[in-house]
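Ops channel
N.P.: pipeline sanity check, posting one input/output pair.
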């Protein structure tokens, strides 16, 4: 294989390229590099719903709850529409939260309520308390007490409250209070 020097021609008469090609390529690379520096280090971008950025080189900012809930934000209507979802979607969302965060403790094994298929039942019983803004710890404990869990193929039934550790019950209350705030 024979390499051609710029400006030379091959045996077939094909030119190797004009002598100014390396200069043009270098200049174009410099322009692209300067553009990248401008975009990523110098340019100022506006944060979503928060006005202009005051310090240089900040770049794009992540969406924050404060920014999303600002009425001047173009996504404000979409975000507030999420608060008006149907009750079945809200129950599913609550069930998912409960299923991922609350577990049954059996011989130091954590069986999450979603895996035990108890999260939806619990969410359906707790959701009316959240919508009526009457969430009380005693009422939640009463609901948990009245959900039977069958063990040993149905040989024995144990209240759900006996299987959920105290810390998980506290986490459940926190989760419910937060969910109620979002409604």
């Amino acid at each position: 294989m024979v390499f051609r020097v710029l400006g030379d021609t091959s045996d077939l008469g094909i030119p190797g390229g004009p002598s100014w090609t390396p200069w043009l390529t270098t200049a174009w690379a410099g322009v692209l590099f300067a553009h990248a520096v401008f975009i990523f280090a110098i340019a100022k971008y506006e944060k979503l719903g928060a006005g202009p950025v005051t310090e240089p080189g900040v770049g794009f900012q992540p969406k924050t709850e404060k920014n999303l809930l600002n009425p001047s934000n173009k996504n404000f209507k979409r975000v507030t529409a999420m608060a008006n979802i149907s009750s079945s979607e809200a129950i599913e969302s609550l069930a998912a939260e409960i299923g991922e965060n609350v577990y049954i403790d059996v011989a130091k094994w954590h069986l999450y309520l979603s895996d035990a298929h108890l999260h939806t039942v619990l969410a359906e019983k707790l959701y009316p308390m959240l919508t009526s803004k009457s969430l009380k710890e005693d009422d939640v404990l009463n609901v948990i007490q009245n959900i039977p869990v069958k063990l040993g193929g149905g040989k024995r039934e144990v209240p759900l409250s006996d299987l959920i550790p105290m810390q998980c019950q506290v986490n459940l209350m926190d989760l419910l209070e937060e969910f109620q705030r979002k409604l």
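N.P.: looks fine end to end. The chain is about 50% helix and 10% strand.
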